[in-house]
Amino acid sequence: MGLEDYKEIVATCASITTIGHMLSGTLICKNIYQKGSSMGFDPMPFLGGIGMCTLMLQYAFIVRDPAMVNVNVFGLLANVAYMAVYYYYSSQTKDTLALIGKATAFVAVFLAYAQVENPEKIEFRFGIIVTALLLLLIMSPLFHLGEIIKTKNTDMLPFPIIFMGTLVTFQWLLYGIIINNSFIIFQNVVGFLLSLAQLSLFVIFPSKSKAKSNSQEKMD
């Protein structure tokens, strides 16, 4: 019995875990709600999620993969909801709208490209595009690496998203191996390693806010 016999099982598990990954944004929205402001929270996980789900949905239609279609439709709707929460609690709505506008224009360019590209080449070329953008999105928390090292604090990193992302990339890597899709394999190998690197930061630099709350609970 080869790996191909487990294709549907792996696809189902990967889809469920991916949905869990997408739902992890609710924890960040909960923190925004409790704080009463989105200040100090990075909107890029949500904006990037909207953009990547849109582009991955296009790619799923190109390769005709139902599992990828279903997951990315759900992810698109979830990230739109998260971004709406972020915007509602934003004190700088003009800046947020400008960021949304730029992200929309950016994604629109690639969607337009997908409509005019040669059908025989679109799967390969669009696959390169979504792979590069996905890896940039996964890497985005590392853009704060300098500040994290300086402050020795990982509070600015979205731990739920990074943790679930590690599980997701591993399972989609396995799925990519089963269906022998080089783009899915490559993007998830790199994505898995990047996620592990980001998780290691939480071990090296524990969250100060959690440490503070634990010390307060002991005092109480």
Bulk shape = globular
Rg, nearest Å = 19 Å
Helix content: over 70%
Let me know the largest β-sheet.
none
Distance between the termini: 58 Å
Separate helix tally: 10
Strand elements, count:
0
Mean pLDDT over all positions: 83
Order of helices and strands: HHHHHHHHHH
- Output the structural class: mainly alpha
Strand content bin: under 5%
> Which spans have pLDDT < 50 for at least 5 consecutive residues?
213-220
Can you describe this structure?
The protein is mostly helical. It has ten helices and no strands. It has helices at about 5-25, 25-35, 45-65, 65-90, 95-115, 120-140, 145-150, 160-180, 180-205, 210-220. α6 (about 120-140) packs parallel to α9 (about 180-205) and α8 runs antiparallel to α9 (about 180-205). About 30% of the residues are buried. The model is unreliable at about 215-220 (pLDDT under 50).
Question: What's the quick description here?
Answer:
The chain has helices at residues 7-23, 25-35, 44-63, 66-88, 93-116, 122-139, 145-151, 159-179, 182-204, 208-219. With 220 residues, it is mostly helical. Helix 3 (44-63) packs parallel to helix 5 (93-116) and helix 3 packs antiparallel against helix 6 (122-139).
